[in-house]
Specification:
Number of domains: 1
Number of helices: 12
Strand content: 15-25%
GO molecular function, one term: metal ion binding
Strand order of the largest sheet: 3-2-1-4-5-7-6
Pfam families: Methyltransf_7 (PF03492)
Keywords: Magnesium, Metal-binding
Helix content: 25-40%
Number of strands: 7
Order of helices and strands: HHEHEHEEHEHHHEHHHHE
CATH class: Alpha Beta
CATH architecture: 3-Layer(aba) Sandwich
Structural class: alpha/beta
C-alpha cells in the first residue's frame, strides 16, 4: 500500500485548534500562550527598537505563515499590530494581516473568529486576507512584508524523503513512523530534506520582506547536530513510542498489514539550532540575527490537568484526543476509517495501561524548542 499523504500537506499538521473531549479550545489557548512566551519578549524588543518605521505611504503588512485556524492566530496578529500601533509614527497607518497556509486550510473557520465577526467584542483595528500556498515557496511580492511569523511549522518537511520509502534501500524505514529511533542513514535522509526546506523558507522570506523587516519563529528543535535520531526528547514524554507499539500489536495480530506500517512516515524532523543558523546565513546572509535560542525541556501545563489526568480512563482519552488532533488526519488518510478507529482504541487502551508509570513520574509534559527573531538587512 502506497503512502497517500502528499508532500503538499506535510507542514500543515500543526495541532489544529478543534474541540476534542479533554482537549478544549481553552486548554489549547493556554498551551499556545505558554509556548509563545518563548518569543514575545524578544519580538517586542525588536519591533520597538530595531524595526524601521520608514514604511512609505502604504499600509503595514504582517504575515503568519502556516497559520492555525483558531484564537491563537488572531491573538498573535492583535499582539503584533498593538505593538506597532504603539509607535507614534505608525499610529495613523493601516495594518493588513495576511494569514498564509495551504489551500486546504479552513480559512472560513478562521475568519468567523475575527474580532467583530463573532470572535469577540473588541473592535478589529486591522484588515485581513487569506493567502493560499506553500511556505516553502514565494507567497508574496518582492519587498512587501514588514513583519512575519511562523510558529510550530519549521519542523514539518516539505516532502517525505523518497529514500526511506524504497524497500530496496538500506535506509528503508521499516517498522518506524518517523526519524525518531531510526537508523543513522534513514535519519540523514530526513535531515537533508529538512535542511533544504529550511534554506528555501528563509530564501523566500528574504525576497518578500522589506529592509529592516522583522521575522520571528519557534518550533520543536534539538540542541545540536549530535544524535539526530533522538528527535522526540525521551519516550517517557512523547507518545510516539506508545503509538508505534499499538500499531505493531495490530500488525502482529493480523489486523493491519505490515506493509501499511512500513510505508507510513511522518513528515517531521526537528532541526537543531545550528542547522537553523546555517539555513538563515546560507548561501548569503540576508538577515541579521537578533536572537537565536534553544530552550531545553520547556514544561507545558494543560489548563485542566487535574481533570485530564485524574484516572487511567481520563488519561487515555486525553492522550488519544491529543494524538488525533496532531497526527490524526495523516494517519486516517493512510489507514482509512475503520483501521484508524482500531488504532485509536488500541492506543487509548495502552495509554490507560501506561497511566501508573506516568503518574509515578508526575505526568511530564515538555518540549525542547528553537526560537529566533531576525531583521532583514
Amino acid at each position: 500500500m502506497k503512502q497517500k499523504w502528499h508532500a503538499s500537506h506535510c507542514f500543515q499538521l500543526q495541532q489544529p485548534e478543534g474541540r476534542e473531549k479533554g482537549v478544549t479550545i481553552a486548554n489549547q489557548k493556554k498551551l499556545r500562550q505558554q509556548i509563545q512566551s518563548l518569543l514575545k519578549p524578544a519580538l517586542v524588543d525588536t519591533l520597538l527598537h530595531h524595526f524601521s518605521t520608514l514604511v512609505g505611504g502604504g499600509p503595514v503588512h504582517y504575515a503568519d505563515f502556516g497559520c492555525s485556524v483558531g484564537h491563537n492566530t488572531i491573538s498573535f496578529a492583535t499582539f503584533v499590530t498593538d505593538i506597532l500601533n504603539s509607535k507614534s509614527e505608525l499610529s495613523a497607518k493601516d495594518f493588513v494581516c495576511h494569514f498564509a497556509d495551504l489551500p486546504s486550510n479552513d480559512f472560513n473557520t478562521l475568519f468567523k473568529q475575527l474580532p467583530g465577526e463573532g470572535g469577540g467584542e473588541r473592535e478589529r483595528t486591522w484588515f485581513v486576507e487569506g493567502v493560499p500556498g506553500s511556505q516553502y515557496s514565494r507567497m508574496f511580492p518582492h519587498s512587501s512584508l514588514h513583519v512575519a511569523m511562523t510558529t510550530l511549522t519549521l519542523h514539518y518537511l516539505s516532502e517525505i524523503p523518497s529514500l526511506v520509502s524504497d524497500k530496496s534501500l538500506p535506509v528503508y524505514n521499516k517498522g518506524k513512523i518517523s526519524a525518531h529511533g531510526s537508523s543513522l542513514g534513514t535519519v540523514e535522509a530526513y535531515v537533508e530534506v529538512s535542511r533544504k526546506g529550511l534554506r528555501k523558507f528563509f530564501e523566500c522570506r528574504a525576497e518578500e520582506m522589506v529592509s529592516s523587516g522583522v521575522l520571528g519563529y519557534y518550533c520543536p528543535g534539538r540542541r545540536d547536530r549530535a544524535h539526530p535520531e533522538e528527535q522526540m526528547f525521551d519516550d517517557n514524554v512523547h507518545p510516539q513510542f506508545l503509538f508505534e507499539k499499538s500499531w505493531q500489536e495490530l500488525v502482529n495480530e493480523g489486523t493491519i498489514e505490515e506493509e501499511i506500517l512500513d510505508s507510513f512516515n511522518m513528515p517531521i524532523c526537528h532541526p537543531s539550532i545550528d542547522e537553523l543558523q546555517e539555513a538563515i546565513e546560507q548561501p548569503i546572509p540576508e538577515f541579521q540575527i537578533q536572537t537565536l535560542e534553544f530552550t531545553d525541556k520547556f514544561y507545558i501545563t494543560p489548563g485542566n490537568a487535574d481533570t485530564m489526568f485524574k484516572d487511567a480512563k481520563a488519561y487515555g482519552e486525553t492522550m488519544t484526543n491529543m494524538l488525533k488532533m496532531g497526527a490524526g488526519p495523516m494517519v486516517s488518510d493512510h489507514l482509512g476509517h475503520e483501521p484508524m478507529q482500531l488504532m485509536m482504541e488500541r492506543f487509548c487502551h495502552n495509554s490507560e495501561k501506561d497511566y501508573p508509570l506516568k503518574k509515578a513520574v508526575g505526568f511530564p509534559m515538555y518540549v525542547s524548542f528553537c526560537s529566533g527573531v531576525l531583521v532583514q538587512k
